[in-house]
Amino acid sequence: MNFSELGLCQELSQAVADLGYTEPTPIQEKSIPYVLMGRDILGSAQTGTGKTASFTLPMIEILAAGRAKARLPRSLILAPTRELAAQVADSFEKFSTYHKLSMALLIGGVSFADQNAALSKGVDVLIATPGRLLDHFERGKVLLTDVKILVIDEADRMLDMGFIPDVERIVGLLPPLRQTLFFSATLSDDIKKLSDKFVSNPKVIEVAPPASTADTVAQHLVWTSPKGKREALRGLLRSEDVKNAVIFCNRKRDISTLVTSLKRHDFGAVALHGDMTQSARLDALQKFKDGEVPLMIASDVAARGLDIAGLSHVFNFDVPGNAEDYVHRIGRTGRAGKSGRAFTIAASEDDKKYVGAIEKLIGKPIPLAGDARSEAPQDASEAKPASRSKKKKAGSRRTEADSPESGKTESGRKDASKTESASRNESGSRNESGGNDDNRSRGGRSRRKQENAPGELPAPPECKGDTLQDTGHVPAFLLRS
Ligand code: ADP
Ligand code: MG
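A: This is the predicted complex of the input protein with magnesium ion.
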């Protein structure tokens, strides 16, 4: 199967060939013909499998006939974050190399002037975040009455509580007779129901069961104590062959603390979260993409859609309280057929619940790090659950002298984040950094022996199963009341 067999013109086939695409991905193969037919689509496929081209390529084909009028865009793509909108705009430009189509990117945090200038010339494609689009609308700079195609990328995120009022308002400004395309890696039945008022007789295209994680990502779970998380992370950063990694935190305020801590331990890191200025966000992402810094510590603002070439690892420094966010976070790696590795550091009673919810959503357990089923580690010394390998190493390195099972975990556990969506998580009350593991490692007395701490359950060497429930390997601190 090649792109022209899907009904795309020679110029588009050439544009994708220039990018090195030799054949369409499954979601592209299944959705492009229906988009060309003018059907509404509810499309889901795993992260990193080419959903952007699934809607952009046929849109270009459709828009190639016709001309844009001033302030009356002919199509609209909505995305939840500025970075993703910018990335989609970038893809659109690449795919439309051989077409004369115009595009405007309307995102917040940058000046209105250039965006206005583009709108006044007339655009075929408007790519926007909802807030900035509505700002332009309110200033009378754009009319949406000529929009014939609406795309909602990361559709489930766009229909959640934070975005839905803006999306509803925008859709209310569009003509009812239009084509509407929804795409996401996670499209639950609830979201499909919710989308009913935006789409008409949609073709539902599911490449894999919704919310499937990409097969290309090897997933691992690491248990430690709340105060042992940074040390566990550093251990992973040292033992894994990390080329570049996104490290997700649930709360914005923990990000700068973690960046500082990592830098103190000689790791290069930048922050990316929604409280930064747009220029700082762009700067951080660019440095990271250019390989100037290997680690980006991010909030869920980076969880959706971002395509960072060859990202080797994703670390969840916090287990996301929203199971869908897990799928998207780890989906920053293992894209376009490449393999990637994801580690989730779990530490509290709440984390146990969150992990359970994630495993339910993805329909499989997340293997404990080191379990053979979490896929073959290159080096057997890496093949140990963090809690065990930590004990083995204890005493051999000063920073690992204080093992995580010290029982000082209650406070961290009690105010752990609530089960809310990513952005809501960021206002959570827990401050993990209150327990400074770095300080503890300096002054702390080490537990140098390899035995279990009093009250700790041994991890049976012959343990079978992948989940906490299967293995019964529940860290003791989770069992203490
Ligand atoms: P998704 O939206 O499904 O998460 P993207 O559209 O961001 O995925 O695409 C992921 C990566 O795969 C991008 O780097 C993109 O250039 C690449 N890609 C997309 N389609 C193809 C294809 N047919 N062949 C090769 N690479 C592709
Ligand atoms: Mg995408």
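The radius of gyration is 24 Å. The first strand starts at residue 41 and ends at 44.
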